[in-house]
TrEMBL record:
Gene3D superfamilies: Methylthiotransferase, N-terminal domain, Nucleic acid-binding proteins, tm_1862 like domain. Residues 2-121 form the MTTase N-terminal domain. It is an enzyme of class 2 (transferase). [4Fe-4S] cluster 2 binds at residues 162, 166, 169. InterPro entries: Elp3/MiaA/NifB-like_rSAM, Methylthiotransferase, Methylthiotransferase_CS, Methylthiotransferase_N, Methylthiotransferase_N_sf, NA-bd_OB-fold, Ribosomal_uS12_MeSTrfase_RimO, rSAM. This is Ribosomal protein uS12 methylthiotransferase RimO. It catalyses: L-aspartate(89)-[ribosomal protein uS12]-hydrogen + (sulfur carrier)-SH + AH2 + 2 S-adenosyl-L-methionine = 3-methylsulfanyl-L-aspartate(89)-[ribosomal protein uS12]-hydrogen + (sulfur carrier)-H + 5'-deoxyadenosine + L-methionine + A + S-adenosyl-L-homocysteine + 2 H(+). Catalyzes the methylthiolation of an aspartic acid residue of ribosomal protein uS12. Binds 2 [4Fe-4S] clusters. One cluster is coordinated with 3 cysteines and an exchangeable S-adenosyl-L-methionine.
Amino acid sequence: MIKVGLVSLGCAKNLIDSEIMIGHLQQAGMVMTPEPDLADVLIVNTCSFIDMAKKESVGAVHDAVDGRAGSKKRARQKIIVAGCLSQRFSTELPGLMPEVDAFIGLDQITQVAPIIEKLVGTKEHEQENLVTKQPQYIPDYDTPRFRLTPQHMAYIKIAEGCNHPCSFCIIPRIRGRHRSRSQESIVKEARQLVAAGVKEINLISQDTTYFGMDKWTEERPKPRSGVDSSKGESLSTLIRELNKIEGDFWIRLLYTHPAHWSDDLIQAIAESPKVARYIDMPLQHISDHMLDLMKRETDGAYIRDLIKRIRAGIPGIAIRTTFIVGFPGETEADFNELLQFIEDTKFERAGVFNYSREEGTRAAKMEDQLHHMTRKARWNEAMRAIQRSVESFNTTLVGRKMRVLVEEPGVARSEMDAPDIDTTVFVNKKLPVGSFAEVTVKEWRGYDLVAA
């Protein structure tokens, strides 16, 4: 019986890849172990979105290699490096990490069991690089999968890859072109999850708003022309179908791109009570100069108008966004415009990235790269602006009743809070974990709330 250990790094999309690998390993009769010393094979599922993620992934691989070298029990252990780091640096890593036994990419996650069987059956160290250059894989509703999330919440990957030309981002080169699942497949998976007791379904992909549009036969609409869902499947049609599933649960939209929002999508959310009054929409900047350099396919006027339409069309909506500061060529005027936008718009939830210069992107080759101290100073100032905005919003919540999903004893999340990234609601009473409850906000502490 082969024992396998797995280290999963990175975002929720990567987590699903780990869940799929575990599902296939268990189907093949292999046993998962949390103890590295007991594992015949150790998989490190890596991330390489930004420099910090790369360093964490490389460190995890080195820890695995060093652990094997320093342990007699692990002397014959095989090490597999999977995920985005393998996919991004498929030609460089084998020479840089000769101790690793195999490198696999996105297309190999369903083949992990036979790959392991072959490695374990090989006594000598013979490194294999199995990564394919243009990944094509996308999961289905019946794909073997072992969920690593709590019983009451789950992620559904509705699409894979990305078609956007953002100059700072390497994801399209790692994950490939956008490819949507069928709406029928997603709805079937959602039904299975709700039947299993899931109370929150988080829809994820690189760009959830582009769902279905890659299958349309007509020319892709321009950002400002809106999206006509009559052309085929879209996020709007998917939301309406998911809302029909019987049961008490939330549907949460993550990773939406502003270019593909439409009045139809706003209406679909408004008329679907099971969709959480929360959207995650990374804007990255508001300055036209920056949005053009970033190749974001939107401009400041479009973004401001879209936010107004979303707030008007979906009462009580909480908007979460992220920004990048310190991008090449960002002037003081660009940054001040962003600060004023944060102040004026009063986002309920937000975060800031300090620009990371990623090799292989257009932005990495740009002139006017900002000094790291300038980037850090702007990040600190932008974070202070966001903190003021969130704390001001939290002040308005004191005394209000809200529905929460209990995560663990004394800890919950509201409809306005996505897993792992947003506000925590601390609850001063015993409530069943994995259940919905009505609480009253008593006070706030920084980003978090205290309720009873």
